[in-house]
Amino acid sequence: MEKNNDKDPDHDDKSKEDEKKGDVVSDAHLSDDVHQDGSNNKENVDVVGNAETDHQDPGDDNVDKVSQGEEAPEIRQTLESLSEELDQFLPTLSLHMEEHKDCTEEKGEDGYFQIPQFVGKFLDLFEEKLSKYDSGEPKTVWYQDPEEVSSLLEAVDRVSKLMVLLLNTKSCLDHHESLINHAGSIQQRAMAFLEDEFRIILEESVTKESVVVTDDSNSQRRSTADQQDHQNDVVVSQDQDQMLVPECGDQEIEYPGYPEDVVVVLRKIAEKMKAGGYGWECREVYLVGRRNILMRTLKQDCEFEKVSIDEVQKMSWDTLEREIPIWNKTFKDCSSLFFPGELKLAERIFPGDEGSLFCIVTHGLAIQFLGFAEAVAMTRRSTEKLFKILDIYETLRDSFPAMEELFPEELRGELRNEVTSARSRLGETAIHIFCDLEHSIKSDSSKTPVPGGAVHPLTRYTMNYLKYSCEYKDTLEQVFKSHSKLEREEEEPVESGNSAFASQLMRIMELLDGNLETKSKQYKDIPLSCIFMMNNGRYIVQKIKGSAEIHEVMGDTWCRRRSSELRNYHKNYQRETWGKLLGFLGHEGLMHNGKIVKPNLKERFKSFNATFDEIHKTQTTWVVNDEQLQSELRVSITAVMIPAYRAFMARFGQYLDPGRQTEKYVKYQPEDIEDLIDQLFEGNTSSSSTATARRRT
To answer: Could you report the per-residue pLDDT of 576-585, keeping only the tens digit for each?
Structure first.
């Protein structure tokens, strides 16, 4: 660039006029190199002279007019206009860098390069733009406006290119340190802003998470007032607790749930940060963000949380039994949905990544999955664990191949070894449990009755074993074939026409019947004992009817005999519980010489009320889980009680004085009795007084 050693004669007048008119073009960076030292050398003159003569902006023509006393129009430079000038200047600076890259210090001023004034002004305006975003202005979300996205990211790109050229041009390093520091500071600020925005977009723009945005997570970025300002851009439905993006309409978006325009913005930010030397920071934000989002998604969609091997082995079976179905669903969903989605997203935002980001996000989780499976197999063996273990075994067998294909070859060997180890342990454990079931039934001698007469866990475990042993037939055969290391003891000869499997089923059912009969005697309350036997009997019958294989083995004769036993338990329960209550509704002792004996009538009502309250209070805590059995019991009770109570009320209710006397002794109307009967067998712990008071209003 040609140097100018002559000072502009109109410089002083022009400066005064610029100050007077409030010229928007700042010369804050005009003489950043003038003050490098105290000397008034030739280079310092060049800075001032070239800043005014080499760069003529549209406002320069007005200088002459001002000096002649004419009013000059104010020319306002914008970031966009300065961007065009900077785009024209950068190739010049690049050319200078190439031409003087081999220059030595001995060449002195020959390598000097003047930086135009508008460069500093561009940096100032861009810094103002960043300040507005940091302060919450404007109130629109910039990444939802394509023009704003383009403007901001192009400005960032210009600053990055400028910094590269300045830092690689010797004359700039020698003479423009102040400008370089200023540009570097702005670049760092811009990259920090993009890093924060990348994180926010990554976390808040998901539309396919179950419960994507909650009040807590949404408040991390904006206050309630700020959210109101954004309601035209992003609508949060509190009823569905899900973020809805209007631009997407009703179009379903696959996991991970980013609209296409959001992915484009994320990719552009990543590209600009990488170009500016901040690619590592962007990747780190992505890794942390996607790991958190993935874990949050697994927790929300699958209720999955990480647990260590030690934690698994310390869990109670009740807890672990709930965790295993969650693990199965999570592993399957990761294999078919979440992991492929993570791989695709990483490739779209970071083209050419070749799966490295995906591996960092998911590999540890995959290893943790397999560790959980192996930990379950190492827990203490018990009969009830068989089917959950087989579920895990099948999940690994069926879902791992698809997951394996997502990882690069160098990681597949490690994962295969982990799966092989886990399946081997699971298979051996399943075989031991399968063979121990009969012994488990024989040795079960718990003395604590099941609360409420509910289905006993032993019944559930045993019948699930029988039912699922048929449904898992292929898997069990595979397990025995691949993992059996046992020398099976000689079995008793099977009955003619029955397979070993059928004989085992019959033997287990006989053991279970005897065990339940013994457990029913643990209840001091005979009606509750009947409820217990009805619950367990109905559960067994329903399981057998629900499995064609078991029904075929047990036969129709066995099913009819068991149904007849259930009817007998039902009759015994009704006689023991409601027969006594019906006795209070008889006519005996209420009349003398053809007249009603009121004291006896009042006592009869009081006794009925007290007895019914006690039955209601007790039997609302009893449990009948089978809806059909529960309905049958209630209907039969209602059919016996309501007609008798209605007839008693019609016959004797009129002999009580209206008002206080009626309210005192007639506590229930027939409709109240019917409503309260419908509360029985719910397993509730609330007292009957609350329910009664509610129905007496």
So the answer is: 999 888 888 8
